[in-house]
Amino acid sequence: MRIILSLSRVTRGLLSMLLVALATFVHAAGAPADIRLYVFDCGRIDARDMGMFDDSGALDGRPGTMSVPCFLIRHPKGILLWETGLGDAIADRPNGIDFAPGIHGSVRVKLVDQLKTLGLKPSDIDYLAFSHWHIDHTGNANLFRHATWILQRRELAAATSATPPPFESLAPVSAYRNARIRLVDGDTDVFGDGSVELLLLPGHTPGHQALQLRLPHAGVVLLSGDLYHSDEARRLRRVPRINVDRAATLASMDRFEAIAARAHARVVIQHDPRDIAALPHFPACLH
Ligand SMILES: [Zn+2]
To answer: Which superfamily is assigned to 32-277 in CATH?
Structure first.
């Protein structure tokens, strides 16, 4: 009896050692963490003339509509918000606002209300990151002063310089001055397990970046930032006139496409309404 008991104890010991070894192996092999991606409607932009988005002139005089999404990533180690949209204040204006002549912004539903649907308040967001600091990405940033702001050093430097890139303003991001900041230089593994990674892809602005996610079921998803403004722009390698560096933009496109091909990634062009409509409709998520 005692022999059987000690044998079973040995068996249990061996079994737990095996399980630990297996877990270590699975982790080392890059098993995706249990993460979920939610997409919020953070507004839309209607432009009378999309000319600024192609320096070849092919879009001159042509109108266009762009989606403005925000993304929430739930990771076992915290919640990351990627982008903050046009700004909830615009939702209170039934006719929206004109950012510039012929560039109209509107917000149908507030980000805070979409967070509420998930049972969250702005103070529940642990980390905040942006593809870049153009005002269509920073509208609600100051709601998240409790979060750790993960900022590319060169984006912050450009935005706070005497000659900031066009369409950048410090007003909607003023909370950065008192927030906890994690300044980064280049690609950054947000949670340290390879599941959520910032990819520095400069050109649109000096510190422009995309976000790479490794989801347990959906696989690798790449959120484009403003590397491209539509699927056509990606196919045709359109370089917007408003970009700060043409050569850097093309190099970033090459790098992004190599990463996408290698990982068989699902690419989401954030400003392309078709790509956003193809994602699970909130409050459903991709995981
Ligand atoms: Zn944008």
So the answer is: Ribonuclease Z/Hydroxyacylglutathione hydrolase-like (3.60.15.10)
